[in-house]
Amino acid sequence: QKEVEQNSGPLSVPEGAIASLNCTYSDRGSQSFFWYRQYSGKSPELIMFIYSNGDKEDGRFTAQLNKASQYVSLLIRDSQPSDSATYLCAVVFLTGGGNKLTFGTGTQLKVEL
Amino acid sequence: DTEVTQTPKHLVMGMTNKKSLKCEQHMGHRAMYWYKQKAKKPPELMFVYSYEKLSINESVPSRFSPECPNSSLLNLHLHALQPEDSALYLCASSQGGTIYNEQFFGPGTRLTVL
User: Fold this and answer.
1) Among B92, B10, B69, B4, CA closest to A90
2) How high is the pLDDT of residue B1?
């Protein structure tokens, strides 16, 4: 069974702080990793993708990947109340039928004033 | 155009009805997907179409029938659904062809089965 694991939260951070979201995955051969943000009642929105070990920065967001540890994380700097949402980690697993994007259960982030 | 559109936004149907969900993208993507999402759960893959051919069916009951008329359109035909099929149905698309393709989601159809 190929799995993606996240802490469900809620993770509460004060406005302006750094939020750190973590994800582990079971398949050492995975090559593609994604972070989606989902507001309540809305569809997932892609905010970051990362394919190589190390850090990738985009504005206030930094994705970090460590394939040896099978670990991917998302840092949100200067957190804002509008960042309050569920963050879904997703990993592509290779299956007999093709490439399959598998989601973790999501971490709920609350940014407090 | 970087958008995936879905219609209708909301759908209420009885267990004996037949209805269809529609999805459209004009990004030139060659892979399209149907997902089902229950409240407080992650999206679950149902079907994958790659270059207009069904490539993955995640053992979905036959009361759900996908169709890909062309590279821009994806339908999901619904028949004799059960109340437990009530969920948010999400369509997504990606460029297709490699494992590096980012998937972009439409707004979803909120389905209620009475």
Assistant:
1) B92
2) 58
The closest CB to that of B43, out of A46, A97, A103, belongs to: A103
Q: What is the dihedral of CA B47, B50, B52, B55, to 10 degrees?
A: -50
Q: Is B93 on the interface with A (CB under 8 A)?
A: no
| Distance to chain B for A79, nearest Cα, Å | 23
Q: How high is the mean pLDDT in each 10-residue block of chain A (113 residues)? A: 90 98 94 96 96 96 97 98 98 84 96 95
Q: What is the mean pLDDT of residues B9-21?
A: 95
Helix, strand and coil percent figures for chain B, each rounded to 5: 5, 55, 40
Chain B residues within 8 A of A32 when measuring between CB atoms = 99-100
What does the alpha-carbon distance between residue B51 and residue B103 come to, in Å, rounded to a whole number?
Answer: 15
- Closest partner residue to B42 (CB to CB) among A46, A94, A105 is A105
Q: Which two tokens stand for residue A34?
A: 């994604």
Q: Are B67 and B22 in contact (CB under 8 A)?
A: no
User: Cα A82 to chain center, whole Å?
Assistant: 17
Tell me which H or E stretch contains A85: strand A85-95
d(CA A29, CA A70) in angstroms, rounded, equals 9
Nearest-Cα residue of chain B relative to residue A5:
B42
Report the percent of chain B where pLDDT is more than 70. 97
